[in-house]
Amino acid sequence: MGGGGQQTDRITGTNGRFGTYTWEEVQKHTKFGDQWIVVERKVYNVSQWVKRHPGGLRIIGHYAGEDATEAFTAFHPDLQLVRKYMKPLLIGELEASEPSQDCQKNAALVEDFRALREHLEAEGCFKTQPLFFILHLGHILLLEAIALMLVWCFGTGWINTAIVAVLMATAQSQAGWLQHDFGHLSVCKTSRWNHLVHKFVIGHLKGASAGWWNHRHFQHHAKPNVFKKDPDVNMLNAFVVGKVQPVEYGVKKIKHLPYNHQHKYFFFIGPPLLIPVYFQFQIFHNMILHALCLSLSYLFSYYVRYFLCYTQFYGVFWAVILFNFVRFMESHWFVWVTQMSHIPMNIDYEKHQDWLSMQLVATCNIEQSPFNDWFSGHLNFQIEHHLFPTMPRHNYWRAAPHARALCDKYGVKYQEKTLYGAFADIIRSLEKSGELWLDAYLNK
């Protein structure tokens, strides 16, 4: 069976067969409805399980036909529990003659990275400090309380309203980083509690959907900056990014917008519109399409709380204007922070790299400082966050020297920039991509 191994009489779960397989056989099962993955040399048929996967439908499919061991380890804090759920999906294992890594990945690098993770776990880098997150939540609630008290005490004048809007946008941005922590299962001891609190935080504090976030964000982590797999580089034909896509569009004479000017119009349709327009539409569409009743109830509670607090001072019309202005400012904050570590990096089609190499070509760090840590929700340690997504963010600084040393050992580039330099690189990279498009469009 499979790649020529001997079939046994063992029956496992609903799959009905157990055997040994070659990589060639595994790599035939990559299409929706017929998807196999390999984890720790064991072969699993996840064709139906993808529909029930808590991390979203597509993320497992992105590893169909591949070794998903490193992603499996990275995303699940309680591996023993997840292995129990995977038992009914087990259909076999790799033949003894087959390597553990697929696609000619560097086995020594993979083993050293695994050893690094084990070392960091032993050092306590995956243990949460509850006080950190309690204080973080406290300062969000304090900002919201101060904003409301300012309106209560000083009225709705333009200057006071501007201050209130800045406080509310700051609270919303910081709440965004907090929901991100729970979404990555890095706060509570169990995944169940992380999921429950995540639904509350992203719903009641942010007016968004945990299901939508999981579906989108975990794909980004699984295959960062990989076209057709990372939704964050799906620019809806508004931008061309990286070095490959611009040439591709130019050769095909695709011109939805004047991409050679994208570094200019980015300021008008990028940061201002992502959250108030594009994300808002996606969130409501996702919740209605999938009938996410709990998410809808939390989202409803967010809007009820907001309008009860502010319509009594501003009236409905101006409360709506204030709400959208806060979203407008938050969107700028979010876009610059999240894109500074990705858009200037390598963006390409699937290359089947090992976990460390794949994450490092797509991410970079921003220099550490108390302000940068707070401002970015510790996403200035984007490399460590992508390598170890379940690690509590207050421990990234402890992991960083070890990750850098491993990169140096294998010649993997570990980039760190200033905050200003990272922001400027977004625009520079868009300009370079636009030039590549124009050259291909005119000359190829």
TrEMBL record:
GO terms for biological process: unsaturated fatty acid biosynthetic process. The chain crosses the membrane at residues 265-281. SMART domains: Cyt-b5. Residues 18-95 form the Cytochrome b5 heme-binding domain. Coiled coil: none annotated. Pathway: Lipid metabolism; polyunsaturated fatty acid biosynthesis. It is a multi-pass membrane protein. It is found in: Endomembrane system. This is Fatty acid desaturase 2. It comes from Sinocyclocheilus rhinocerous. The gene is fads2.
